Amino acid sequence: MGDDYLVRIGRLIRDARQHRGWTQTHLAEALGTSQSAVNRIERGNQNISLEMIARIGEALDSEIVSLGYSGPMHLRVVGGRRLSGSIDVKTSKNACVALLCATLLNSGRTTLRRVARIEEVYRILEVLGSIGVRARWVNGGGDLEIVPPARLDLDSMDMEAARRTRSVIMFLGPLLHREERFRIPYAGGCDLGTRTVQPHLTALRHFGLEITATDGVYHAEVESEVRPGRPIVLTERGDTVTENALLAAARHDGVTVIRNASSNYMVQDLCFFLEQLGVRVEGVGTTTLTVHGVPHIDRDVDYAPSEDPVEAMSLLAAALVTESELTIRRVPVEFLEIELAVLEEMGLDHERSPEYPADNGRTRLTDLTVYPSKLKAPIDKIHPMPFPGLNIDNVPFFAAIAATAQGSTLIHDWVYDNRAIYLTDLTRLGADVKLLDPHRVLVEGPVRWRAGEMMCPPALRPAVVILLAMMAADGTSVLRNVYVINRGYEELAERLNSIGAQIEIFRDI
Ligand SMILES: CC(=O)N[C@H]1[C@@H](OP(=O)(O)OP(=O)(O)OC[C@H]2O[C@@H](n3ccc(=O)[nH]c3=O)[C@H](O)[C@@H]2O)O[C@H](CO)[C@@H](O)[C@@H]1O
Ligand SMILES: C=C(OP(=O)(O)O)C(=O)O
């Protein structure tokens, strides 16, 4: 069977590639490999892993080759192992998706450096590809090059991919400058209860955008004479609504003032990127942004989004719950300062290197070494606030950390309707987590973790929290259907294994 099997797979790959009208070089670039490697694979002269077949299937969008990848992915975790060594933080999901949407502002070529290879990015790339935007991975697969077409083909939009992310809502801001009439599906994302889009619609109405929603689709119409006559006051200090207002303001021929703006990390990355496009933004890092728009943007630009504070928090939590000494490199510390201050009060023992700039030249990074720490519960409740508060996406990690601490910790997740509820899944791994109401849980520590088998909760951060608890629990645990984790973390299992975890990936075929 051996060689024959490779030849048959090679033919399937060649057929799928030709069906897409791609050259071997084109496929090689998408995979971050060489043309000669693709040639060997297609001739059956190269041993090929299941993972590679899956990547080829994904790149070629081919059902036949993606067989074996289409089933859900699960994790088998052998817990109770200490982590050690060091690990780098990747770029953030939330900045990367905003920047991908922002490329729609530019007629020129955009190169984004070290874009996180995560499902959320793949979904937005699928949507962009379906409307005619050319995107390809370059420089060994680390960077993304994006070139929009002269005219977008919005009728061909991949609605299924679009529906799986909330980020597609950020198409509204750029598109209102390109089209008078268009439609996008209702925004998806994590299942965290109702997430309003009303603040987006209220903000974008200042630019003439009117939306009617029917049958799961937003129908947008733009009255191009309508222009913001006065400052836009956001009704919520949300991240994506601020980004949408910025994206709309970027190509408005004039000055737009946005008040009650989020100053969070992804918004800052977007502002730095807009500056590269020639759009001046005053007030970055504050809640009032003044945008000097440019009606036509046609520049070849190169931008390096910054590291993900939420991934940094995830790795910090991994070290704490497994009682490990671990160095987390490239931590965007200005977006983790409150978390660190709270953890220090709880007894966190850590060291920070001198700060250095991220590749965007603006964000401050540090290398953080975490030592096994004897933690006690905080005196006050843990609760999020818009930046510069404790990051909303970091709250769930405090549940796992609080479980290892002596005493009771109240966690008040006022933001999301469903998220605190998912934290009670930790009880199945031995933690004492009581749901006081849909927004508040009481965690009693210290825990004695035990292994378990469960489905991933349908929310990114609670899902990772469960994974971390499994890594701390002696014995073998199974976490099923981890798409939601892959939405926001690049090769998390492999990277955790590189610092001492034992996590095996397996799939249903
Ligand atoms: C792609 C992206 O960047 N996603 C992030 C972004 O989503 P995004 O900006 O889309 O978040 P939402 O607009 O859904 O806001 C989250 C929740 O907070 C509530 N809210 C928000 C601000 C406010 O001043 N008052 C208020 O009540 C909203 O009603 C909603 O229930 O921000 C969220 C909150 O930081 C993060 O969890 C997401 O990871
Ligand atoms: C809630 C999150 O993301 P999204 O806005 O993509 O659903 C998250 O990153 O935790």
TrEMBL record:
Gene3D superfamilies, per the entry: Enolpyruvate transferase domain, lambda repressor-like DNA-binding domains
Native species: Streptomyces lycii
Protein origin, superkingdom: Bacteria
Pathway annotation: Cell wall biogenesis; peptidoglycan biosynthesis
One Pfam assignment: HTH_3
Function: Cell wall formation. Adds enolpyruvyl to UDP-N-acetylglucosamine.
Localization annotation: Cytoplasm
Ranges of residues in domain HTH cro/C1-type: 13-67
GO MF annotations in UniProt: UDP-N-acetylglucosamine 1-carboxyvinyltransferase activity
EC number: 2.5.1.7
UniProt keywords, alphabetically: Cell cycle, Cell division, Cell shape, Cell wall biogenesis/degradation, Cytoplasm, Peptidoglycan synthesis, Transferase
Name of the protein this chain belongs to: UDP-N-acetylglucosamine 1-carboxyvinyltransferase
UniProt cross-references to SUPFAM superfamilies, sorted A to Z: EPT/RTPC-like (SSF55205), lambda repressor-like DNA-binding domains (SSF47413)
Family of the protein in this entry: Belongs to the EPSP synthase family. MurA subfamily.
Annotated catalysed reactions: phosphoenolpyruvate + UDP-N-acetyl-alpha-D-glucosamine = UDP-N-acetyl-3-O-(1-carboxyvinyl)-alpha-D-glucosamine + phosphate
Main location: cytoplasm
